[in-house]
Write a structure and sequence with these properties.
Blueprint: E1 2-12, E2 15-28, E3 31-44, E4 47-56, E5 59-62, E6 69-71, H1 78-95, E7 99-103, H2 115-125, E8 132-135, H3 137-146, H4 159-170
Parallel strand pairs: 3-7, 7-8
Antiparallel strand pairs: 1-2, 2-3, 3-4, 4-5, 4-6
C-alpha cells in the first residue's frame, strides 16, 4: 500500500489557485481510494451544531461522537467567548478536517440569523489551519433533490449539519 498527500490546484492563465487542502489517497490493488474528513456546521441562535464525517474505503464514518453542539451563554463575557473559540478549535485540531463549512444564513429579513450566531461565525472563521467555506442552503437542497440523504442522525437538531457534511463528501 502506498500513501500520498496531494494539493489540488487549478491553473487559470498565469494564476494558480489552490482549492482545498491535502487529501489522503491510498493505492491498493490498482484502486485509488480517497479519504477525506469534513465538518458541517449549522449555527442556530447562540449555538453551533457540529457534525463531522470521514470518507474511507469502508464507507462514511461519523466522527462527531459526543461533541454535538457548542453554545455560548453570554456573548459579552470575554471568558465564554474565548472558551468557545478554544473548544471548537481543539475539536477541529483533533479531527484534522480537510473541509470545514458553515450553512449560510440570511443577514436580514424575517429568517435572519441572530446577532450572536454571527459572532460565532466570525470566531469559527478565525481558524487558521484551513479556510472555512460557506454553503448556501439552497445548494444543499438542490443536491438532495437528485441524491438520497441516507445517514441516520442521533438527534433531529443535527440533521442540517449532517446533510451539509454529507454534501461535502458526496458533491
Amino acid at each position: 500500500m502506498y500513501y500520498a498527500q496531494i494539493l489540488i490546484s487549478i491553473v487559470i492563465g498565469d494564476n494558480t489557485d489552490k482549492i482545498g487542502p491535502f487529501f489522503t489517497f491510498e493505492s491498493h490493488k490498482n484502486v485509488l481510494i480517497v479519504f477525506m474528513k469534513v465538518i458541517g456546521i449549522d449555527l442556530d441562535s447562540s449555538r453551533a451544531i457540529i457534525y463531522a464525517l470521514e470518507k474511507t474505503s469502508d464507507g462514511i464514518d461519523n466522527l462527531t461522537n459526543d461533541f454535538k453542539t457548542l453554545a455560548i451563554g453570554d456573548d459579552a463575557n470575554n471568558d465564554q467567548v474565548r472558551n468557545f473559540r478554544t473548544t471548537i478549535f481543539s475539536f477541529f485540531d483533533n479531527i484534522e478536517p480537510d473541509i470545514i463549512a458553515i450553512i449560510t444564513r440570511r443577514s436580514s429579513g424575517r429568517f435572519a440569523g441572530s446577532p450572536i450566531s454571527f459572532k460565532l461565525e466570525g470566531l469559527i472563521q478565525c481558524y487558521e489551519r484551513i479556510e472555512v467555506q460557506f454553503i448556501d442552503p439552497l445548494t444543499i437542497n438542490a443536491f438532495y433533490k437528485t441524491k438520497t440523504f441516507s445517514l441516520t442522525v442521533k438527534h433531529k437538531y443535527q440533521e442540517q449539519a449532517a446533510r451539509l457534511a454529507n454534501y461535502l463528501l458526496e458533491r
